């Protein structure tokens, strides 16, 4: 049982570069989301999706794009990396939208450094 | 403004004693509360939750208490074990929203 798989585990980018953080889940969950965790901060929601073809913005969406072409995959794209995007990124999934007695299943994170 | 506050960044407890982690919230629309545990280099894992219609939920060594009038919840771990050393996040859920606290680092000393 793989659960939620994130790749890569670590990434270093130069300012202005673009990249895609991959996230895949094998639990057939409808809800998927991306969070970032910064020192001294809680987890902050970047984007989320309640099903294939449907995405929406979270609390801190600027500088990021997402798409959901399949139930399994929910990639996060950084369009032009900035040092402020240095963070640990977590992908999470849930069988139901949050708030309906459905805890999130998290991946192990991608640690991104932008220089 | 923080809707979910964990005012203690860290807590140290001796093995075998009780650990009490606290969480305060401001939004009265929150109706479901969760605790997650996070080890270094891993993602958070769900620990225990409570609905706003209850005031207590117990699962083995873990108990969550909810005081709606005070907008306060707490996680009790009894007895604490060295493997409980981790960062604990409180989260509150309401219509269309889920908000995490900043976390409390628990260290259980053998």
Structure, described:
The complex is a heterodimer of chains A (115) and B (110). Chain A is mostly beta strands. Chain A has strands at residues 4-7, 10-13, 19-25, 31-37, 43-51, 54-57, 64-66, 76-78, 87-94, 105-106, 110-114. In chain A, the strands form two sheets. In chain A, strands 2, 4, 5, 6, 9, 10 and 11 form a seven-stranded mixed beta sheet that branches. A four-stranded antiparallel beta sheet of chain A has the order 1-3-8-7, with no helix packed on it. In chain A, strand 5 (43-51) and strand 6 form a beta hairpin. With 110 residues, chain B is mainly β. In chain B, 0% of the residues lie in helices and 57% in strands. Chain B has no helices and eleven strands. Chain B has strands at 4-5, 10-14, 19-25, 32-38, 45-51, 56-59, 62-67, 72-77, 86-94, 97-100, 104-109. In chain B, the strands form two sheets. In chain B, strands 2, 4, 5, 9, 10 and 11 form a six-stranded mixed beta sheet that branches. In chain B, strands 1-3-8-7-6 form a five-stranded antiparallel beta sheet, with no helix packed on it. In chain B, strand 4 and strand 5 form a beta hairpin. In chain B, 36% of the residues are buried.
Task: Chart the SSEs and their pairings.
The complex is a heterodimer of chains A (115) and B (110).
Chain A: E1 4-7, E2 10-13, E3 19-25, E4 31-37, E5 43-51, E6 54-57, E7 64-66, E8 76-78, E9 87-94, E10 105-106, E11 110-114
Parallel strand pairs in A: 2-11
Antiparallel strand pairs in A: 1-3, 3-8, 4-5, 4-9, 5-6, 7-8, 9-10, 9-11
Chain B: E1 4-5, E2 10-14, E3 19-25, E4 32-38, E5 45-51, E6 56-59, E7 62-67, E8 72-77, E9 86-94, E10 97-100, E11 104-109
Parallel strand pairs in B: 2-11
Antiparallel strand pairs in B: 1-3, 3-8, 4-5, 4-9, 6-7, 7-8, 9-10, 9-11
């Amino acid at each position: 049982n793989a659960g939620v798989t994130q790749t890569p585990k670590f990434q270093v980018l130069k300012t202005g570069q673009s990249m895609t953080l991959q996230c895949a889940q094998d639990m057939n969950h409808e809800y998927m989301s991306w969070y970032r965790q910064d020192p001294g901060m809680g987890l902050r929601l970047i984007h989320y999706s309640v099903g294939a073809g449907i995405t929406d913005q979270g609390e801190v969406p600027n500088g990021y794009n997402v798409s959901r072409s399949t139930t399994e995959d929910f990639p996060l794209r950084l369009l032009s990396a900035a040092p402020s995007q240095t963070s640990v990124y977590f992908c999470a999934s849930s069988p139901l939208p949050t708030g309906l007695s459905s805890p999130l299943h998290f991946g192990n994170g991608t640690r991104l450094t932008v220089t | 403004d923080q809707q979910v506050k964990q005012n203690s960044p860290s807590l140290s407890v001796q093995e075998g004693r009780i650990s009490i982690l606290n969480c305060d919230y401001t939004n009265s629309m929150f109706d479901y509360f969760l605790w997650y545990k996070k080890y270094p280099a891993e993602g958070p894992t769900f620990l225990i939750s409570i609905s706003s219609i209850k005031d207590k939920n117990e699962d083995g060594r873990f108990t969550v208490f909810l005081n709606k009038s005070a907008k306060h919840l707490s996680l009790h771990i009894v007895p604490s074990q060295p493997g409980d050393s981790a960062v604990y996040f409180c989260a509150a859920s309401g219509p269309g929203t889920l908000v995490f606290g900043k976390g409390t680092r628990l260290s259980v000393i053998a």
